[in-house]
Amino acid sequence: xxxxxxxxxxxxxxxxxxxxxxxxxxxxxxxxxxxxxxxxxxxxxxxxxxxxxxxxxxxxxxxxxxxxxxxxxxxxxxxxxxxxxxxxxxxxxxxxxxxxxxxxxxxxxxxxxxx
Length: 115
Description:
It is a single chain. The chain has about 120 residues and is of the alpha+beta class. The protein has three helices and five strands, in the order E-E-H-E-E-H-E-H. The longest helix has 27 residues, at about 80-105.
């Protein structure tokens, strides 16, 4: 699995064209190997929720699913620290997803532990 991240920035302008600071853009996409894609299809994991966000009322709602990361997306924020936090959240979600894929790959087989 590959998480492809691109950072960008653009100037914010006012109604009359004045400089109002910067916006920071995080574009992301996950590429799966054919084996990983087969597992996602086999276990119908496209809608498996990897990250949540909080709405204005404090409710947790689904934000990124396996399918949405495979399709890719873009987050635009006004603060670079939020961009870095979002990037770290994506990395952690992909690490958790990789662990899930490794477990799914072992179904139907056996593991031997020696002590």
